Structure prediction request, 449 residues.
Amino acid sequence: YGFTLPGWKKNKLTYRIVNYTPDMSKEDVDKAIEEAFKVWSVVTPLIFTRIHKGIADIMIAFGTRVHGHCPRYFDGPLGVLAHAFPPGNGLGGDVHFDEDEDWTTGSSGFNLFLVAAHEFGHALGLSHSKDQRALMFPNYAYISPSEFPLSPDDISGIQSIYGSPPNAPDERPTTPTSPKICGSQMSFDAITTLRREVIFLKGRHLWRVYPDNPEAERELISVFWPNVTPGIEAAYENTKDQILLFKGNKFWIVSGYQVLLGYPKSINTLGFPKGVKKVDAAVCNKNTGKTDFFIGDKYWRFDENSQSMEKGYPRPTVNEFPGISQRVDAVFQQKGLFYFFHGSKQWEFDPLAKKVIREMKSNSWFNC
Amino acid sequence: LPTHPEKDNEGDAKLVQNYLNKFYAVEPDPNQLGWKINSESGSEKLQKMQQFFGLKVTGKLDNETLEMMKKPRCGVPDVGL
Prediction:
């Protein structure tokens, strides 16, 4: 992380939304801005109060190209999305959004909450971070709203200027929320075994479940595998005591805690054609040494011994796995059986009998 | 800026120049007497950018560097605030 001192010399700051984007309802803009300030107030002593007229510490506006007296110009759609000024008088602390972008509350276009949270980091004195997992990394990256957007790097940075919240139990950077594992709608991005453990991945976090220990251990992925970006989409354990992690068209091979050198590599090196942009889920059948990659409603089969994709694929998933008709979020093998996950459900599948044995909640592996 | 011949696409060269000037030009401090003219060459700025984004630091424009420059981002400079 980086910061520009001295930051604000007070903890109570005011903000004003000067104008609105036509892309979103005013209520959605108000909510996105309020939530974006909350991201920083939960990890610092800072308190943000909205005012509706006059000069606030943090003035928030939408503009295009040359806008008002701002010395920095916008560049039309894409490119620069927004900018902000470090704490100070006048322009200091102000935040501007490029109205030529498509502002949204979701994953399409650019999520106003996420960009605002980043820009408010600047308005509080942070500069850009080189840590690709940090919210203060310069490039835009969508993070699921169920995820708390600050990484440990962001929290360390802002707390080095303002300290931690008055009621924080200790000084370590705290990430106040992570997905509620026992929530009724809990789903997972990827699941893999690792020897006797089962590792569940979601956003920035992973949970390690041991067969004889009811309490799962939660970790930040960045603590476990520092060079791997969060938001892993597929994972599996191969026949060589290694884990392969997939995100977009890249994958890493991890041996123990060590990411092998030269990774990430493109998934095309595994034999996928150029048109394949990502993998939804993957599992290696320890009994056959074959790995099945699930993409949409089809699957590909990879031979771990010859390290090559088998001919005649992809095939419809439901042909080989009757009853598994939805897109597969995650899959793993345990005691010879496959467990397929989609949303908040999972299906236990017998690959020999080729049939679903039972349906369960996704988080049935946790002591909920 | 040293570039690969096939990379010598006019649009890309302009994009790269703008990017480096916008995010890697150390803005001179008006309070300093005899401002130090921003003498950093394009290649030095490019090395800084490649280092910041964890790319191979060559000072030469390659695909990966160009792709990174095309990604939507924040308008605040990465160095020399």
